[in-house]
Amino acid sequence: MATKSSIHIKPCKVTSSGPHNRRTPEYMRNIGETRIYVIPELSSDNEQWINPDFGNPDLQTHYDNIKRIVKEKTGRAMQEKERERKGKNGKIIKVAGCSPIREGVLLIRPETTLADVREFGEECQRYWGITPLQIFLHKDEGHWLGGKPDAEDKESFQVGGKWFKPNYHAHIVFDWMNHETGKSRKLNDEDMAAMQTLASDILMMERGQSKNVTAKEHLERNDFIIEKQKAELQRIDAAKRHREQQVELAEQELKQVKSEIRTDKLKSAATDAATAIASGVGSLFGSGKLKELEHSNVELHQEIAKRDKSIDDLKVRMQQMQEQHGKQIRNLQGVHNQELEAKDKEISRLNTILEKAFNWFPLLKEMLRMERLCYAIGFTKDMVNSLLTKKEAIRCSGKIYSEEHRRRFEIKNDIFKVEKSSVDDNKLVLTINRQPIGEWFKEQWDKLRQGLRQSAEEPRKSRGFKI
User: How many Å from the N-terminal Cα to the C-terminal Cα in the chain?
Assistant: First the structure.
């Protein structure tokens, strides 16, 4: 199973007007710069894309346009530097400057294409309004291993007798501003977690498995929605725990108030006794303090009555809040369970249809396998239609991708065709110049390894780096 994808977002420093300058990605800095290398033979697999909707690829020009938009929409200049302000409690709070252009670094697989990363950027724009400006795929960077890789390491390969560990990654530059309001997009921790899930769904899932083989109509996107609903339930649970803490604090306050009331009642009893004594004394001596003591005693009893009523009202409100919150939780859980049941039924129905189709048309499974292979190689929809539907041969030039060897190979005026296997009539095979594609890929891989081995044996001029 493929490794989970990760994305790291940080402000993008606009320092030049040219295309993306190659530099060490954030997640590779722990390797050490002296161990990071570029393999020129793999540089042809690198790809880049500039958003044509913005006309000018100059990031500095785009940054200046954003500053102008902020000034027009808000009436204030864009705050670019970090500043300090005093909070309500008198403490100094640091406020980060605006970062209208931000860069994300994505971990990708060797077969990840520019179209895959563009799809991720389009989904980010649809969900959160952040617009991709530039995308760069780097598939020629990595570092040399000190010896043989671990058994579970399936990515490392040998170059000139030494083991090389590739670091496949992509840079994606985002416009983080809302051009309608002139304000920066606000993404919280839940949004960033959802972005990680989205990157994993689009970039790390086996290509075409969901749509082309099982016909489950993009169920991975539905799974993403379910994850969002689960996150919402977790947020509601956290709110419930917060309210429970508030109730607990209120109960502690209630106990404290009751304790104070008992103290007040003792004081009241003492006051009554003192009043009785004062009454006797007053009858003897005619003191004017007796009426003052009686008035204070009445006021004390009234204050105690008000406090008792306030406590009763507080209990009623807490009970109502708990009942309302419990009802909301039950409603959300009911809706979530209904959606899960409907999804399970749809999956079961699709699986039943597929089983019938495979029984009625034995070659259907082979046709689907051929379709997946053709798309993985890099054929377009029209080319796949010619091969499978029209059963025609096609002539191609360019590069095709091998999943087994995780790289692209050059072709020139080669003929492709889907034919029945010479070994099994129930099997299909994709041929190139009447040779099975698997055998052809193996031959090209052997030629490439032999060429790399010969180039490594030739003396190389040093430019200050030692390998």
Answer: 33
CA 178-182-188 angle, 5° bins: 50
pLDDT digits (tens, 9 = 90+) for 126-151: 999 999 999 999 988 888 888 888 87
- Please return the burial class of 158, using the count of CB atoms within 10 Å of its CB with bins 0-12, 13-18 and 19+: middle
* Global pTM value: 0.41
By CB neighbour count within 10 A (0-12 exposed, 13-18 middle, 19+ buried), where does 55 fall? Answer: exposed
As a 3-state breakdown, the chain gives helix, strand, coil percent values, each rounded to 5, of: 55, 20, 30
C-alpha span between 397 and 410 (Å, rounded): 8
188: region left, alpha or beta (phi > 0 left; psi from -120 to 50 alpha): beta
By the 8 A CB rule, do 2 and 206 touch?
yes
* Among candidate residues 401, 406, 400, the one with its CA nearest the CA of residue 168: 406
Alpha-helix residue ranges (DSSP H) falling in 82-188: 114-128
Closest CA to 212 of 371, 381, 2, 380: 371
